Amino acid sequence: MQRTLLSFIVMVCLSLSCLAQQGEGFTPHELLAGMKPGDKAALLMVHFGTSYDDTRARTIDAINARAREAFPSLDVYEAYTSRIIIRKLHQRGVEKHTPLDVLLQLRGLGYTHVVVQSTHLIEGAEMESLRRDVARVAPFFREVRIGTPLLYSVEDSEALVRLLCEHHRVDAESGRKGFDRHFVWVGHGTYTPATALYSQVDYMLKALGHDNVHVGTIEGYPTFDTMLAQLKASKAKQVTLVPLMFVAGDHAHNDIAVEWKERLEQEGFAVTACMEGLGELEGVQALFIEHIRFSLQHRPQDVMSKKQAYADGKETE
């Protein structure tokens, strides 16, 4: 029953997301419909990566397998954006490659159409790097499209909030003022303006009445201190730390399960840490699959063409 309800929520949220994105910077255009005889299409799954074999199997390998199942007409490849993780794995005999390396390989193999889907959460520094890599090789292909990260539209954030609240059994009753048990969702964060997405998620939680769920980031905003102030103001006693990250890797094991846990315990809270990456959840995997499907069916609208349409009176701002 719980899984059925979760699947229903996912489908509703995905439908809303598609409707919203279609009118906001994207236009309908089937990628595969324009292919000619001899053309080849590939899907490149891009991950930050992890050196933890167990979480990689449950997240990265799982979403890659799900993508192969969902899009049998596409050849699925993968790439890692973290050079440090690529180097660590190489020393252990595990070979992973950067997006640029794999894209060049795809061109050498004769692929003409590529959809690039990242499992990053926000449009931060990693996505900026990925977009630059794609721009460098785009002239070598007939068309390359980049799927949006997990939290791109407002509807994406709403979908994730509902999924995680359902998964962790956070309902309106448990969020009432004075409830002892609180959750802290911990994201990586970024130095770019995209860190505001974490505050948006926190705001949505509070708007839904979940006063016992808070968001913090390791390298962005909200900070540990802003999250701690919320815990104290809510008179929390028990805290569960939850990684707001695709994999439960180094940051989850070291920064969350050790550093943040110890700091909160020093403040007098009883703390547990949930070592589960977002990529382990079927609902989150479904969100990424829908992002890929959306990219196959839509392409970004050129902003200058849109501005020209305003100038010509064909559209209104």
The count of helical stretches stands at 12
Unreliable parts: 1-9, 15-23
For the secondary structure, the number of strands is 10
**Helix content class:** 40-55%
Could you say which overall geometry the principal axes of the C-alpha atoms support? Answer: globular
Strand order of the largest sheet: 3-2-4-5
What does this structure look like?
Helix content is 47%, strand content 16%. By secondary structure, it is α/β, with parallel strands linked by helices. The strands form 3 sheets. Strands 3-2-4-5 form a 4-stranded parallel β-sheet, with helices on both faces. It has a 4-stranded parallel β-sheet with strand order 7-6-8-9. Helix 10 (250-266) links the parallel strand 8 and strand 9 (270-273). Helix 1 packs parallel to helix 11 (282-297). The longest helix is centred in the N-terminal third of the chain and has 21 residues, at 2-22.
Give the helices and strands, then pairings:
Layout: H1 2-22, E1 26-28, E2 41-47, H2 53-58, H3 60-70, E3 75-80, H4 83-91, H5 99-108, E4 113-118, H6 125-137, E5 143-146, H7 154-167, E6 181-187, H8 196-207, E7 213-217, H9 224-233, E8 238-243, H10 250-266, E9 270-273, H11 282-297, E10 298-300, H12 303-311
Parallel strand pairs: 2-3, 2-4, 4-5, 6-7, 6-8, 8-9
Antiparallel strand pairs: 1-10
Helix pairs in contact: 1-7, 1-11, 5-6
Keywords:
alpha/beta, Rossmann fold, 10 strands, 2 domains, four-stranded parallel sheet, 16% strand, 47% helix, 317 residues
Please outline what is shown here.
The chain is α/β, with parallel strands linked by helices and 317 residues long. It contains twelve helices and ten strands.
